[in-house]
Each structure stands twice: as structure tokens, then as C-alpha cells.
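Per-residue structure
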Amino acid sequence: MTGDDRPEFLLRLPGGPVKHRPRGVLLDGNGTNGSRKFLVRAGSAARDHVMPSLHKHFRGPFRRREELKEQGVLVPSSRWHGWLELTEDVECSSPSFAAVLLAGAPRNGWVEWRTEDGTPLGDFMTGVGSGPNRTWLVRGSNVAGLDLVRRLWLPEGLVTLAASRLRQGLVEGTSKEDLRTVVREDYESTATYSQKQDLVEALHAFLSRMKPGDTVCTISDGRFHVGEITGPAVQTDSEAGRSNLRRPVTWQDDGHPYEDLPEELQQKLSIQHDVVDLSAVQALIDGLGLTDEELAVEAESIERDPSEEIPAIAARRELELPEPTDELASELLVHDTAWLREVRDLLWDDRQLVLYGPPGTGKTYLALKLAEFLGGGPEQVKLVQFHPSYAYEDFFEGFRPQEDPETREVAFRLTAGPLRELADLASREGNRHIPHFMIIDEINRANLAKVFGELYFLLEYRNKSVRLTYSGDDFALPPNLFVIGTMNTADRSIALVDAAMRRRFAFVELSPRTEPTQGLLRRWLASRGMDGEPAELLDALNSRIDDADFRIGPSYLMKRGVYRDGGLERTWRTKILPLLEEHHYGEDVDVEKRYGLAALRASLPAGPTRTSAPSVAADGESPWFAAPVLGEGPTAP
């Protein structure tokens, strides 16, 4: 493009002189790494200050800016107070280099330079992808035993893709179907089926989806490097045929230690493909190496809605679990708020926790109420109950028969289970800072290795991802997804819980012999102004049970029916004694004589007791049951 055919582009500097916005043109020539050069016109304005960290992350534009000042080319403007001005044309290695030089802050030149009618510069490039700019990971640290990142990419400003057997003549914009045919023919006997599939995806991304202005990232020697694609894809022969597809890149000067990267970014980087779309975590990458203050300064120079939070700051905002309050402890009748805080801290540290104890100790009720408090409501909580036939396909994903609503035909379709649904909900934009909870009731009753499958690995390594069995997707557990399991110690299937399970979960006991369970029934009765005899009977009963795992929890006696006429005797005869008969099965024990109400009452100290039911309201319910009752409805322990 020459002469009058060359379009002129303008750069908006917020707060800058409107009538004399920076102007420039895209040149035909390429820089040393293949980037298209850009010429900034004399008379263009520039900011008189730069972002504090510009010299650290964008040394090239920063040094050029200082050189132009020393040469008298970038000088204080006599027309616009507080601004600088170019006295002559300046040639830059890329549109983004020019934009950063003038703005003194990171800029994507392919988007920021626009025509008078608002068309971005990137739209004038032929043969490239369309749509918003994206972020890509391209691996290059181990190609045929060489670290191309250190050897080639960083020093020469490139990113390459290994395709040594690929025929010449491929161009940008080649369709995936055409690439599939080419790869099938060119790699017919040298690659497996899955290797060919992966290569097609990588080639299509590199040739037809990437475009100038996109962010590109890579990992080498324990450091994460970030750059910007500045030109088209070129097919060339390289040393020993190791790579023959390349794009020019302007790399930032400093890499970031891998261990310091946010967990969500590490999850994406663990995906084992040569090319990975990282656009979902682009905001995290944009904020690397910058403080909130520096990001705020940068945001001031960009036209944006001031009411919206800066994306990079929002993305890095720490997930928080609220501190349990005295009000919550009072609602749950927990003896000490510090106990709830300890449970919260265990969840915060491990993100997986199991509440275990005998039946009736309020495990499920407590798990649900605590999860609703920490997550901000029941919408963020999902409950499932494990059982011996429960499988991976029920829990996570699998093929299920489904009827087509139009044809009425039944076919097997991939269906998400409760964990996949909750994980997808937790990872949605806007939900990433909201805790979500999966409650697994009776977690020890299923074959855990069978139910969790490859997800077992993710419970311990939250910063990794795995390839899913059915869908083939790369999946990681969102950082804001917590798991609370409940375990009945009276169920002999507890023996199925192996060391791997115990290593992945923190365990908290709920037992009638310890608080908060020990005094729960007494506190519950006192809160309703009721006689304490049921609590005394329960204590006497548990004192006669030698095996702590078979002691009886208080929730059996925290239900409305217990306090109607004959309710206590009925509950004792039909709920509690059968449990103890099963426990002593085959033993010569008279359960009624040892654990019956008559025997227990005879053992209690002499004093006033309630032997009759309390008065019943007109609706048939006792008046003190206005508050929720532990152990009833969907919150049964």
C-alpha cells in the first residue's frame, strides 16, 4: 500500500488534545522479526508521564521514549499544556510499540489505532482471525530436546510451532477441515490418531485464529513469559526441520516465577497441548507484575466506564470465607463460636472436609447450614447422597438415555452430573469470588475411587487439570468450590475409606462424648423452656454404650413427635432400641433391660421429671417449635 491508498490511523489518549490526536500509518516493511512497522506523524501528542512499571516490563518503548527526549524529537508541547509533542516522524517496530511509546502505558496497537470512522487497525490485515483479541499459550521449552524459548523466541522476537513434515504453501485462514486432510496425508504413518487430532487443533489456532494484537504466553526454566503477536504467520524451513511455522512477537522483558502465578492460571497452564486458549484467564495475565495502584493508574488512561471494576483487579481479588458469627453459633446451638471458626479455617486451608460421627449427631444439618452461611445462600450449595451403586457417571458426567423432545427418539447423550454442574456454575464469570459447596452425605458408602475417577487427583492438586474420561475436556476444580462430606461411624463401610481419602480431607468429629454435640440436646431443650430429662436420659444411655462409634446422637430427640403424648417412649422403642439391638446382634444382651427407659430413669438422681407431654397448640403442634427443628425435612442428619 503506497501513497494515498495508505489509511491513516488515530490514537485516543484520554484527556489529551482532541483536535490533534496522534496520527500514523502502517508501513509495508517488516522489522527484524517480521512485525509490520508503524510510522507516527510529526505533531502527534504524547503523555508527559509514564506508568511506574513501564521501564520494567516494556524496556524497549521506555528507552526509545527517553532517547527521543534527549534528541529533541519528543518535547514539551507549546500548544497543549502538560503534554509532549513529536517534532518529526518516528518509525516504530510495531503499532503496539508506537502506542506504548505515546501513552506511556501498555497498549494493544492493533485495537487502539483506529481510522476516523472507528475501524481498528487489525481489521485491515488480511488472512487473520476476527473477533476480540485472545490470549494463547504456546509451548516451546522442549522441542526435539531444545528450549526454543531461550534459544530462539526471546532473543529474536518469535513464537514458532513444530510442523517439520507439513507441506509448504499453507496460508493464514486455512480451514480446519483442509488442515485435517493435510495432516492425515503428511503424517500418515508417523503420528497416532490422537497426535494428528492435537496437531490439527494447534495448526488451526496458530494459522487461522491467532492474529496481531493477541497475547501469547510460554513457560521456560520455571518462568512464565508474556508477549504480543505483532505480525502474520510465516512458513519457513528451520534448523533440522524442528519448526517451520512462526509469528513475530514483542516479548515483555521480564518473566514471572511459575510458583507465584495465581492458582487458576496454573490450572490452565497444566493442560498438556502445544497450543492452549488462555482467554478465560486473560485478566489474571494482564495484572501480572503490577500492583493494584499501577493498574488503577493505567486504567485512568483508558476510555472505560468508571463504575466498572478494573478486570485485572477483579480477577485477582482473593476468595473469602466469612468468619462465623456469634449469631450463627446461637442459631446452630454450638457451644463456642471458636469451634465454628476452626471448621471454617480447615475448609479454607484444605477445601475438603469430612464431618464424622455416630448417627443423629447433626452432621448433614450442620454441613448444610455452615455451607449456606459461608456461600451466602442455598443457591451456592448442592447436596448428593452416596450409596453402594453410585458411580462416576452419576456424580460427574456420563452417557445417559434421553428422549429427543421433537422426534421422541431415545438416544444416549453426554449428561453432566451434580459435581460438573456445580463446577461450571462456580467458574462462570462473576461467580469466581463466591464460594460454592458440594455436600456429600454418607460419603463412605460408595466406592470412592470409582465415583471420583480421575477427579481424585484434583482433590489434592487443585492447581492442575486433567483430561476427562467421557467428554475429553480439560477440567480443573474451581478454586471457589468446596467439598463437605458426612460419614456415619456406625456404618461398617467406613473401612472402605483408604489413606488416599484421608490425605485429601480434613476430618472433624461430631460425637456425643465431645462438644458441640455433647451438650446440644440440653441447649436445645433450654432454648425452648423444656424440661431437661431427655438430655439426662440420653447421657445415661450413652454412658452404657462401650463403643463410642455406636453412641446415640441428640437429633433423635429433637423432633416434634418426641414431645407429643407417648412420643418419647415411642421414639425410644422404634428408633433407638433397634439400633442397639443391631449393635449387640449375636450377643447375650437384654437390650430393653440395659437401655430401656425404665432402666435409665431408675438410674437418674431423684428430682422433678417431665413424664407427660407438653401442652399442644390448636394446630396440633407444640408452641415452642416455631424455630426450625434439627433433623427434619431435607436437613436431616
In short: Residues 609-637 have pLDDT under 50 and may be disordered.
